[in-house]
Amino acid sequence: MPEPMEDYGNNLGGVGGALLEVADVSKTFRSKAGEVRAVDGVSFTAQQGEVVVIVGPSGSGKTTLLYILGSLEKPDQGKILVSGEDICAPGVDLIAYRRRRVGFIFQFFNLVTALTALENVALPMDLSAVPSAEQERRAVELLERMGIDRRLQRTRANRLSGGEKQRVAIARALANDPQIILADEPTGNLDSATGGTVVDILVRLAREDGRCVLIVTHDESILGVADRAFHMADGRLSPR
Length: 240
Hints:
The protein is of the alpha/beta class and 240 residues long. It has helices spanning 62-69, 94-100, 117-127, 132-145, 150-153, 162-173, 192-209; strands at 18-31, 34-47, 51-55, 77-82, 85-86, 102-105, 180-184, 212-217, 228-233, 236-239.
C-alpha cells in the first residue's frame, strides 16, 4: 500500500470550486452499417476535489465521453467548460490542454514498454519542455508517492506487475500537475485487491490534492467512493 500522499504543489485552491461544465454534448460515428450516436446530449457538472463515477456496460458511450472531455475526440455539438473556458471553441490550444490540464489513466496502462517507470513518468514533462533535472526530480517524487521504490523506478515497464503498471500510469497522469484526472476502467485489468488500492489512490488525489477525478467503469462497486454518480446507456447519462 502506498504511503500517505503529500501535497505536490498544485494550484487548485480549496475543495468545492466549480471546475468542469459539460453542456448538451453529442457525438455520432458514421460507418457502412449506419450512424451510431455514441454520446447523446450529455450534460453534467463536476467540481475540484470531487470524485465523479460513470457506470455503464461496454458500448454505452462512456469511453467516448471521456475521450471528448480529454479532447482526444471532438464532439459534434455542445460545450465543455473548464474553469469557464470552452475547450470546444475555435482557436483553443488543445495540445496544451491535453498536456497541462488533464491526465489520462487507461485500463491497459498505455505505458511505453521499452522505457523504465521513471522514463514513462518523465515523458509528458519532456513533451512540455520541462528541464531534464526537474523531470527526474518530479518523476521520482511522484513514483514514491505511488509506492514505487527506487529499484522499480529503474525497471522497464514490461517487467512490472499489473498493479505496479497502473500506479506508474497514475504517476504519469500527474506529471504536469493537471486539474482533471480522467480514468477509463482503471481497475478493469487488475485483481480486486489491487483494484481497490488503485481506487483508494484516485480518491486521495481528489480529497488531498483537490483534483477533479472522473472514473468511467462497468464495475458498480466503485460507486461507493463517488461524490456524484451517473449511469450511461445508449449514449445518454442519468443520475444514480
